[in-house]
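Troubleshooting: if your tokenizer reports a length mismatch, compare your output against this known-good record of 349 residues.
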Amino acid sequence: MPSALVVEDEPAVRELFSRWLEGLGFVARETKDGAEALVVLKNEDIALVITDIGMPVMDGLTLLRHVRALEAAPPVIVVTGANDVRTAVQAMKLGARDYLPKPVKRAAFEAAVDLVITSKYAWNPPPELAESEHSAMDPDVEQMVARLASPDISDSLLDALVMALDARAHEAGSHSRRVSQLALLLGRACGITGDHLTNLGRGALLHDLGKIGISDAILRKAGPLTEMEWAEMRLHPEIGARILSKVQRLKPVATMVLHHHERFDGTGYPGRLAGADVPLASRIFAVVDTIDAMLIDRPYRKAKTKQDALNELQRCAGQQFDPEVVEAFLGIPEREWMFLYESAGMAHS
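Known-good structure output:
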């Protein structure tokens, strides 16, 4: 049986997590801080680490930095305060595969372990990101993200959060709201109904939530990103999906957000999924996000005409986009989606 290591300074919590791991088929090992954990990791074959953040001698974030340097680093799940968004995001930038907000419930614990162990791809942020500046996170946005966990989270708060995220990234108009409405139109054209359609719209609305963990210098850079800057930018689907997966009402949209930058030909990220392995909601989003990007003026280029944008969709069908989803979009009467741009003074020929 595989071994899992619990790193926790509270004996009762260590014992509880160990029992849950044993129920999942692991041999549980325990240490009370990061320093003891490193000794175990260097001398034993450990398949998974569950670590608290606040511990004596060596805390969880420091442990993560050391784990990254191991030749065969096991996946790590961190345990944080219930609304400690800043720490959770920093842990993911350090390579944590998931996080569990306190108090930890057994169902959430087992789901996180299953997700990490069965994941199809490695989560390996470049080592340089461990020391990247993280203080740029907007406090107001951070506070709103923390409130997502509230059981009475309102649509008005979601709208306010999305507007703040779009403004922080200097998106034109209300980018997230437009792609959400476009996704609903295309979702219906693809035969999606009911709760699945509602979740598609919410996922499109919140697709860039993970940019809370990306520095302003990168989000607002007018020119091309460097390789290191791209490495940080590519973290945002994972960060957003992990945050959403902790919110009961929004959990169904986490998978779409995680894979919203995959490509039909398998060259996207983070999982390099291809074809039907990319969730349908993510394939739909890829089309509407690109349409919106092409029809909006950017600091570095002018918007395309409607016909040029549609031609680009057809040209990239089978590569970036699912050909059937592109066909479905082309079948939507133009008046049903162009009003989003005309009503905002963004009409195009």
